[in-house]
Structures are given as structure tokens and as C-alpha cells.
Amino acid sequence: MLYSEMNKEQLAAEKQTVEKLYEELKSKGMKLTMARGIPAPEQLDLSINMLLHCLDGDCTSKSGADCRSYGVLDGIPEAKELFMDMLGVSANEVIVGGNSSLQMMYDTIIRALQLGVYGSEKPWCKYDSVKFICPAPGYDRHFAMCEALGIEMITVEYKDDGPDMDEVERIAASDETVKGIWCVPMYSNPTGITYSDEVVRRLANMKPAAKDFRIFWDNAYCVHHLSDDHDTLLNIIEECKKAGNPDMVFEFSSTSKISFPGGGLAVICASENNINFIKKQMAFQTIGFDKLNQLRHAKFFKNYDGIVKHMKAHAAIIKPKFDLVEYMLEKELQPLGIGKWTHPKGGYFISFNAPDGCAKRVVELAKEAGVVLTDAGATYPYKRDPHDSNIRIAPTYPSVADLRRAMELFCVCVRLAALEKLSA
Amino acid sequence: MLYSEMNKEQLAAEKQTVEKLYEELKSKGMKLTMARGIPAPEQLDLSINMLLHCLDGDCTSKSGADCRSYGVLDGIPEAKELFMDMLGVSANEVIVGGNSSLQMMYDTIIRALQLGVYGSEKPWCKYDSVKFICPAPGYDRHFAMCEALGIEMITVEYKDDGPDMDEVERIAASDETVKGIWCVPMYSNPTGITYSDEVVRRLANMKPAAKDFRIFWDNAYCVHHLSDDHDTLLNIIEECKKAGNPDMVFEFSSTSKISFPGGGLAVICASENNINFIKKQMAFQTIGFDKLNQLRHAKFFKNYDGIVKHMKAHAAIIKPKFDLVEYMLEKELQPLGIGKWTHPKGGYFISFNAPDGCAKRVVELAKEAGVVLTDAGATYPYKRDPHDSNIRIAPTYPSVADLRRAMELFCVCVRLAALEKLSA
Where do you find CATH 3.90.1150.10 in chain B? Predict the structure, then answer.
């Protein structure tokens, strides 16, 4: 029976039942975390041979560079090739960096603030304020980065196929201090949706007031499909070229969830003008990133096909976990009419919308019973979810057995929070 | 016979002889570079087992962290320990980073500009200008970094035991926009000198006008001795504590010339207040550096003693090269009274002072004959050597045979440049 159709007595009885369920689960003393999108240990084992056998003593890149030594600021060619095929860019449109795409994003923004980007009239810090458009719910670390660097965030809502483009276009065109937009365009963190072709084209065709406006395209999950029935995404760099805005996008990606979260490769892709500009700035920061790790990746994956195959092995491990979460939500919550959730075909998250005003309480209840979720609100700029509704579920790290227990608790917490609200 | 004692005819005859020598050497079509302090391939071979055998499939740090995964912003404990013993700091005074100490310096400065350092009243970019004291000749990349980030450089001369401290103290005390000083305190790049205890203590006891003044202590060559008869350096972090200036120093180091220039570990050391402040800022930039490489280093070197032993193997390879350079300079130039050079007991460079006004010409002549040296002037802020005299000799990369040929040419170039000057 739907909670919305229950009368006062029915709700009271249900609340008593659910409170008892909650106490029972709490007494089990669980200790689980589903706070972050972290691959399970078995996923990391898939790449272990990269560490054991890939460098056989010959550390020479096919360019002739000794990967042990200094140099090659933009990455060895064989590492570039992996990403060129993965992201549809040419060798002059990519820089292979260190182990963290977050770091490449942060560095890109702090350099923009201090020095400007290609085509800037002045460094961004010379404006009274700098603003970014932040479709939400989104990736908490994007928003935290803006806050840390003093960038004002303008929240825009997500629709089913990407950000509300009417709003995005309006805001970008309204003010030259609006310098960027954050996008996780494929299997978006946390919603799981992929931007439609129309949304990508509208983004590429924007006419922002700022001539040095940039789309920060965090394509973190571009090959992270759960099955062969997967989403597709237009190539933003191509679309920006077609639209006559070739320099308007910085694309980021990494192998953090392909090889190793702590020891993968990160990349930035952009127009040649952008890349040349970035390389000039970057040459003062470093002599080069870790080419040994680049060589390891190139030897292990061999080519883009190697990555595609590898991702199927990841999917085999994590798809059952996504299925389990959806199964539990359908079984436990659908009949009660509380909560809505997404059905992503890839990525690392399921986005759950609790009844308005309940998200914080759900997270709190779960924590008290031993299951740590991403903080409620974290998926919004300034951690302010206007509906106190969105919760990011990260199913990959726990074992299937642990995940089942955690989701059992989660559903009870959602029920209890909803009942507390209804009976308040 | 000293050139200074030759008469016009003798100089003309000598010039004719040297021109002939130069043309002979030029006709050999050499192709060598001594531009940068790069370890020779045999030095890199010393660490090759780190790549082959150090990670046996178990990637767990003794802290319990899976080094393949996310996290541990400040480095795994076993990697910290290597540096704690090497640099005399505690676990709370060190962050182990990625593969580049240059990057840690750049990031530290750009964050200081954008956000300030511990104790800053405001971000450094909010001042009309920011100035750094730059003892010279010094490391070209320090100076290039300042220039790229818009920091004004104030050149101070080196004495035999460190920077001219009267000048340093005066400048630092004179102006609150003087925010830093660059130091390569041990086997300084390029002079090869090590700061005396008195200089270190005077630095630690400075009373700068800026309360957020920082010593940038690039201790790149702290264990890079050429023999057991080596220099010693006071611990600047200790001395700053004693002086009541605990937060005044950022110390940097790396294993770039211990393990691999492209795949080593970099560190920043500082007071706990500084480190906590930096970690707070850094948490927005990255989830963590490459812990797999940290684990590799910890397993390979085991402890600081392992590093000390390893550096003796490096010394066995490079000391003959330093000896050769000094031998050639003594044999070829000393009798003529042209040029002065240093006699470092460690590090990567010999600093050569050509007769005033000759450095650019020497580098040019050498280049025309196929030997690339560091650009003349590069060791000074804005690439302006007031005497056009200093040339950095980097003897480590070429083989002994190549180095002999290169130094033969070098000495001929110095003679020719000096003779051109004397006969002008």
C-alpha cells in the first residue's frame, strides 16, 4: 500500500513496525561504507599484471625516450594513443598527465585564475567574481573545488537528457564573469544519465558572454558500460569545432576506474590552441609526468580494444551490484511509493531521490546503524540540496553480500524517514 | 703563459692556433648535450629492480591501505619514513607527493598567490607585486617559475658559503611584499657550494617584514655526495624552530636523482601548521598521489641506509666524470689564467666562470661545434648574468669518452672567446 494512501493509524502502525526493523538491523553492528565510487578489490586485481610483468627492464618508449628519465611533457606516444582512440582526439589534442584527473582540473582552473586561458583578456582572478554553471545533482568534488578557489556557483537543474539548456544558455550569455560549466556528460555522477546529442550540440553552439568561457567536460565514465546495451555520447571536441567554438572545451578523463584509482593515468584533451597554451604554462610546473606508468599502461592495454575488453571484465563484477540495488529498491520501496531512482547503463552511481526533506535523515539513520553514505546535499553546490532529497548510492565497493545488507538497511531508513515526515 | 701577460703578437699567434684547433674539433661533427643535470643510463640501471620485482602482487601498505586505490593524501607511512630519516623531520612534517618536486614548488607558490600560506593576511596575488630574493647563480627553473607567475626577482650574490646574508636580511626586512627566497642549500645548482652553519642560522633567524615570508629550501642534492669526504648541512626546519620561526620554511626534495628522474618521489617538508594547512588546500586538488610508486620505493630502498648505500653506487659512476672535468680545466685553462671553477663535493654541476663578457660566446661556439651547454645567463634571474660569465657544466649524462671530447672542445671555446675579447 502506498504511504500516501495510508491513514493516520496505518502510518502509526507502519512506523512502529519499521522502527523495530531498524533497531534490529542496528543491533547487528554493521560497518560498511558506500560513500564514494570506489572499485572493489576484485576489480583492481584485473590489472595486477600491469604491475608485475609490463616493464621487463626495457623502459624505452617507441619515441626513443627513456621513460625513466626527464622530459616528454605531454606524454609518450603509445600512452597518448590509448586516449586518442578512447576519446576521439588527435595526438596534438591530448596531454597525458599523472595519476589524477581531478588534479588536472584543479591545475587548469588555478592557472586560469592566475594566468588566464587561451584567448583570455586577463587572468580570471582580475574579475571581481568568477562564476561557474553547476548542473546539479553533480560531482561533489567539482563543487568543493569551486568553493575552495572562490568561484561562485550557479545551480542549474538536470533534466532527463542533461542540464536544463535554456537556463545554461541564458546564464552563460548574461554575464562575462560566467567562465565555465561543469559537466559529467556520460553516466553522470550521480544521476547516471548521458547527455543527449541535442544537449551536446546546444552546449557546443553556446554563445557565452565571456570569450574565454570553457566547458569542463569530465568524461570520467566514457567506457564504463554495465553491458552491451549502453549509452553513447557525441564527441564534444568535434561538435565544438563544427560549431565554430573549437577552443570552448576542456575534456578530462582517466584510467582511475579502468586500471587503478591511485596509480592510473589522467588526461586533458582540447583544441591544439588550448593544448599548446597549456603546455607552455605547464612547462614551468613540471619537466614531465611519470612516463614509466604511462609505458606500463600502454604495454598492458596495448590499444583501445584492450581497454574495451578490460571494461567488460569490470562490468561482470559490478553489474550484479547495480542490479541488486535496483532490485532491492523496487521490492522494498516501489510498493510504498516512496523515493525515485535512476537506472544507469554505466558509471559508478545510482541516484536516489528520497521524499522531500528526508535525505539528511536517511543518511543519519544509516550512519547510526553502521552504513556510511555520501553526505546528503554533497551533490549540490554549497552542499545545499533545495529539496533535501538526493542521495548518491555507490554500489561498487562492498561485496554483494554486504551490499544486500546495506541496501536492506537503506530501504528501512528511507521508510522510517518518510514515516517520521508524514507523521510530523 | 697567462693570457694576461701576452703581448699583442703573442695573442694573435695564440688566436690563430686556437682557431685552428676549434675548426678541427668542429669538423668532427660531435653531437653531445651537457645542458641539464641528467643521470646517465647506467645510473638509472641501478634502480631497475624497483620496476621488476618490488610489487609482488601485494599492494597493501603497512597502514593497511590498498596502494592501488584512492586516498592517503600525505603518503603511505613507509614512504614517509624514507624521507623522515633523510631530512630529519617527523611524520607530521612531511607530505610525499608525485614524481616532481618542481611541481610541488609550483603548486605551493600558485596556491600562495591564489589562497595564501599558513598565517597570510591575504592571498599574495592581492598585493600590487610579490617579490622573491634570488641568490644567483642559481637554478634556472626556479627563476623561470617566478617569471611565469609574475613574481619579481631580486638578485643577491653568492659568497663561498651561501647567499650574501647582509643583503638577504636587509631586503627581507625592507618590504612586506618580499615573500620568499629560493635556496638550493647543498651542492647548490650550479655553484656546488653548501651553505655554512652560520648562513643557515642567519636564514632561520631572519626578521622579514612579511609575516608570511617563506624560505623555499630546495634540498635536491641532500644525499648526493661524490665521496665519503662530503659536505654537511644544518637542518633548516630544526633551526627555524630554535629561532622561533617554525613556520618560515618549505623544504623540498625528491628521489629524481636517487631512483628515476621521471618516476621518482617528491616531498615537501615543513612545520605541522604548514603541512596541515597545505593538506587542507591540497584535498581539493587530488584524492592522493601514486601510492604504488611510493610502495615500490619503500620496498626497494627499505630505509634511509638503503638510500645512502645506493648513493655510493651513483657516486662510483659520476665521480670520475667530475674528476675528469676538473682535470681538463686545470690542464687546459689554469696555465692560461682564464676562467674560475668550483670544486663541489657532490651534486650535479660544476660552475664555471669565464672571463667577463665571454659566457654567451663560449656557449655559442660550443653549440656550433655540436656540444649543447646550458644557455649562458640561464643561471640568473631574467637570464641576465651581469658579467656574462657563468656557465653551468653538467658532467653526469655523457659517457667518460664523450665527456672528454666535450671538455676538450669546451676549453678550446673558452680560449677562443677569451682571445676574441682580448684582441677586440
Answer: 3-44+308-422
- B261 to A59: CB separation less than 8 angstroms, yes or no: no
Listed in order, the ranges of chain A carrying CATH 3.40.640.10 are: 60-303
Strand ordering across the sheet containing B152-159? B94-96, B266-269, B249-254, B214-218, B178-183, B131-136, B152-159, B162-163
What is the longest distance spanned by two Cα atoms in chain A?
78
Q: Which of residues 137-166 of B touch A (CB under 8 A)?
A: 141, 144-145, 148-149
Residue A132 · residue A182 · CB < 8 Å: yes
Cα A133 off chain centre by: 16
Indicate the CATH number of B59-303 among 3.40.640.10, 3.20.20.140, 3.30.565.10, 3.40.50.1820: 3.40.640.10
Q: Which residue reads 586538488 in cell numbers?
A: B285
Contact B287/A102 with Cβ under 8 angstroms? yes
- Residue span(s) of chain B under CATH 3.40.640.10 come to 59-303
**Residue ranges of the alpha helices (H) in B2-76?**
8-26, 41-45, 48-53
Class of domain A3-44+308-422: alpha beta
Q: Which of residues 236 through 265 in chain B touch A, CB cutoff 8 A?
A: 256, 260-263
Task: Report the top-level CATH class of A60-303.
Answer: alpha beta
Question: Cβ separation of A51 and B69 shorter than 8 Å?
Answer: no
Chains A and B: how many Cβ contacts under 8 Å? 162
> For B264, which residue in chain A has the nearest alpha carbon?
A290
Digitized pLDDT (tens) for each residue of chain A, 424 residues in all = 999 999 999 999 999 999 999 999 999 999 998 889 999 999 999 999 998 888 877 899 999 999 999 999 999 999 999 999 999 999 999 999 999 999 999 999 999 999 999 999 999 999 999 999 999 999 999 999 999 999 999 999 999 999 999 999 999 999 999 999 999 999 999 999 999 999 999 999 999 999 999 999 999 999 999 999 999 999 999 999 999 999 999 999 999 999 999 999 999 999 999 999 999 999 999 999 999 999 999 999 999 999 999 999 999 999 999 999 999 999 999 999 999 999 999 999 999 999 999 999 999 999 999 999 999 999 999 999 999 999 999 999 999 999 999 999 999 999 999 999 998 8
The reply to whether A288 touches chain B by the CB within 8 Å rule is yes
Which residue(s) pair with A252 in the sheet?
Answer: A218, A268
Chain B interface disruption, residue of A67, A147, A287, A295, most B CBs within 10 A: A287
Task: Give me the interface pTM, i.e. the ipTM.
Answer: 0.96
Element (H, E) at A14: helix A8-26
For A160-257, where are the E strands, in sequence order?
A: 162-163, 178-183, 214-218, 249-254
Cα separation, B38 vs B36, in Å, equals 6
- A47, A70, A102 ranked by CB distance to B38: nearest: A70
Q: Is B43 on the interface with A (CB under 8 A)?
A: no
Which residues in chain A touch residue B113, judged by CB atoms under 8 angstroms apart? 114
CB of B30 within 8 Å of any CB in chain A?
no
A106 touches chain B (CB under 8 A): yes
Return the SS3 of A348: coil
C-beta of residue A176 within 8 angstroms of C-beta of residue A210:
yes
**Is any Cβ of chain A less than 8 angstroms from the Cβ of B33?**
no
